[in-house]
What we know:
Elements: H1 8-11, H2 21-28, E1 34-37, H3 44-51, E2 56-61, H4 67-77, E3 81-85, H5 95-100, E4 103-109, H6 114-118, H7 144-150, H8 153-164, H9 169-182, H10 188-198, H11 209-220, H12 222-236, E5 237-247, H13 250-263, E6 273-274, E7 284-286, H14 296-301, E8 309-315, E9 325-326
Parallel strand pairs: 1-2, 1-4, 2-3, 4-5
Antiparallel strand pairs: 5-8, 6-9, 7-8
Helix pairs in contact: 8-9, 8-11, 9-10, 12-13
The structure holds S-adenosylmethionine.
Amino acid sequence: MLTNKSTFFEKKSPPHKAVLLDDFIEMVKPIRGCWIDCTFGAGGYSRALLLSGADKVIAIDKDPMAYVHFELLRSEFGSKIEFFQQSFSNLEENEEVLLRKQVDGIVFDLGVSSMHLDKPERGFSFKRDGPLDMRMDSSGHPSAFDVVNFCSEKVLADIIFYYGEEKKAFKIAKKIVNERKNTKITNTSQLADLVRSVLPSNFKTDPATRTFQAIRIAVNDELNELSKGLNISEKTLKANGILAVITFHSLEDRLVKEFGKMKSGRVSRGSRYGPDTEASKPTLLPINNRVRKPTQKEINENARARSGKLRVFRKTGVASSIECKPLYYPKIELGLN
Length: 337
Ligand SMILES: C[S@@+](CC[C@H](N)C(=O)[O-])C[C@H]1O[C@@H](n2cnc3c(N)ncnc32)[C@H](O)[C@@H]1O
């Protein structure tokens, strides 16, 4: 329990239940100074940071819809919190960050929020019918509709194979391309049914899960964003500053894990990050050698927590080293104008 204060958040349950939040607070305390919440969402992490001792939170989210949740926190914490609608890959250009030069802590709680999944009109969910969209920032870049209807069969297969780790990616891509010759694929349920028609049914997970994840990653360029965000964070932290990352699928988690290994000097030759360097002095050290996962109790209370993983690092006094780019996943060019 973080506080006795009775606020909107306690009276009404927030629209997104933050995952691994108590573990995060326990691992990073004592909390003080200025933190950046790179994935503000409904503000669960920002609020917990402010209640636990942070003097200031710079809240960032690329989704303009996050602003309404920021307003609630501003009414509670005033100027201790500021919000910027931007991508965390542009953190270096943020005026508050530039002003401060370095901060005490940075947190990423990755992926989509319940606000994305529960609103059919955002087009993220295969469980609720809506227009194929999946853009977190609803801006001008290609949507899921564009990817599904206009990418080549090869690009679609690559996306589904690499970003969804789906073995039957080629079959699914072929099916999509055949279908779209007759009619455009406009809705989430249409795409989900297409995928289900190719894959055998599995009672544990919906066969459409991996394809939807893959297209969402491609639409939002999520792995590239994360890689950039991690590199910038390392430079933005003070000595002894904390970097905490909560991931929700194996591609993200591998990326964070390998980044941590590389930055802690535990990898040199043969790393899946490039460019390779001589074994360098650590700039980040893991606080938890073993990844932190939600307890069964948390999963029972919030099914969306089940795939969460928390990794926490502390910045050393060594100046930031070279940029690391993950070599795990190809950068797939969509080939769309
Ligand atoms: C899992 S939610 C975060 C939930 C939040 N921690 C809370 O407690 O309510 C992830 C959020 O990150 C945002 N996001 C994802 N990628 C981003 C990026 N590259 N830059 C900025 N925001 C991003 C999404 O729009 C979403 O609101």
